[in-house]
Fold each of these.
Amino acid sequence: MSMNLNFWRYRENAAHDHMAVYQTVCCDGNLMEELENLPIDQILKQIFAVFSDWTIQDLGRDFEKEGCGAFQIFTTPQIVRFDCYGMQEKDLNALIDILIDLVVLCMIHKYLQGLIPGRINSKVKVNAAVFVMQIKFLIKGALKRS
């Protein structure tokens, strides 16, 4: 399966203009005040760990594996874009899992800390983890239908 996967996170109370973000940040590589910075180093480390058996070239931006396809990574401080070519569903899901865990879970944790400072307990973390699993399920289902 071939597709582009783009990930970003809006700042709190920012207007959500997905097309402007896609064009300005994902295509042109410019920054926008409406977006938060992402943990790019953490994301790349996790990608290297999960795809360590793939051939990695171009300073860690091109990944390829015989029979599994290929993907390229483009990042700015605010977005991560994967250009995927002939990839298997399980590998696309691995990319999605990495970004959801590091972008969405971080956002949920930040929100919960603001909501109940100093009171993040194991029950709250489990509920947040279940919520993230539901998000993953919905995103992967949408990709299958497209």
Amino acid sequence: MKRSGIYVALLLIVVVLVAILSVRLFFGGKDTLPDAADTPATGTAEDVSATQGAEDAAPTFTETGRPVEDPSPTPPPTASPTPTPSPTPTEAPVFETRAPIEDDAAEEQESADPEDTRTRQSGSFRSDTGTGLNLRVDWVAEPDASGGWTLSVSYYAVSYGFQSSRLSGGLVLTVDDVRYSADTPEMNVAGDAQTESLLVEFPAVSVSGDTVSVSATWDYRGEYSGTELDEITASAVLTLG
């Protein structure tokens, strides 16, 4: 815009100069000037010269202010970065403290004497019928966690051969006044040498004291070597611990 304004001003100056030159050429080309009598005197020669000089002077133009355009292009607007959303606070985990599960077996073990030095014990005792047929009782005692004992008992017939019939409840075990029973098996043992024949193995029983009374009975109901044997019994008091 500024340059176009300058061009317009220069063009106007050129047009004015051309007009002045045309006027001078038009009047200067005449052979005669108008007579003084015909032309009224309007001033001195100096005034005429001054007037002529003023006419010859180029007109002065004042440039009006115009908006100045910035030749450099306006940069495109910069996109603002998208704000990053604030992270949602994570709740701290809550840990629940639980009491340890107590084991009943461990509780019983703790209640037992920590200085318990008891060990497995075993032994046997037998009847005395005065014949070649007797009852032998084998026992095994194991200490348990409660401070008592687990007692296992087996019956053996010791003989030089015998015969017996099956009898219901013919074998009886009594431990501290508690009675247990089993059936007498049918057996036929032959031979001249002494033999030991298993009659029964009782299930293990629990006892609480260190002194245990054990009584065994075999309901034989027969004769052996000319001697009538109705029952064959054996008993003992076991000292444990």
